[in-house]
Amino acid sequence: MNRQIRAFSEIDRVIHEPGRLMIVALLFAVDRSDFLYLQHETEMNKGTLSSHLSRLEEAGYVEVLKTYRRKVPQTLLHLTETGRKVFEQYRRKLKEAL
Amino acid sequence: MDQIGSLLRRPSSYNNIDGTGELGGGFMSFGFVVLLWLQWHTPKDAIWHQMYLLFIWVVLMVAMIHYGTKAIKNHITYPRTGFVAYRTRNVIWLAIIAFVISALASAGLALAARSHRDIAIPVFLIGLLFAASYAFGIARAVRWKWAVVLALVLGSLVIAVLPGGLTAALSGGASVPAWFSARLAGAFLLCLTLCGALLLISGAISFWLYLRHTQAPVKEANEPADSGIL
Fold first, then answer.
1. Do residue A37 and residue B82 have CB atoms under 8 angstroms apart?
2. Which domains are present in chain A?
């Protein structure tokens, strides 16, 4: 099989979805952020963002931490080491494929 | 791939979405302008020449910027557009870049002071260095801030061609260190004032625009805070 085609077939499907790719790319550049920040940057509604985050959490790419900030509930999100590695790999594979 | 690159850069520009980065920079510049002015316009035995005072002054400025920024972020920015904690490695890189830029500016000043020749080129280069750092750190994320870069470049050009007597008078002359020509000292003070003023103006405009275009999200009554990921 051609190397470029193989690179395409090896691309991570969980991250490849545009909405999830946005979330992972944003989280890759920071240590952690809250739900509101991701909502503001991605312009997704709460339901869509929440479902993408659940998918990423299931895959073990994102860690969700529920906490309080000044007595207000806050959902903190953090890209796990696996998530970081998978994203780096995804970028490499995409470069190879293109 | 470019779109991924731009997404990766978004969090770093978010740090100044409310203009606090520029307000802090402007405040710091004005703090140094005031201190240099006091040092150069008072006798050598005045309190402003004491080393410990420089230390206290810098600690005070850093504390005011740190806690002021923190208060704005906690009470205004985070409730409106969300909280972000940056990776320590990125913060260290920023500090290294800032240090290299300061070292380059100091080396440029020292060279200019030693040569005692025309100050136009060194002053213009210092202005260009300020403008380049601003363009790299802030203006590339927001289009209208290129006007600030242009103002910095033009302002430094004007300061560089000002009559020598005018810039020398600004420095006071009496307490300026011997190796530092009075003309260069005055021009440096003007450069720092210009940079501080532009940063404060641009930061204030950013803050005003941020307040105007964002508002804290209203919590919906039938939406429990701990349902699902939310």
1. yes
2. 3-97 (1.10.10.10)
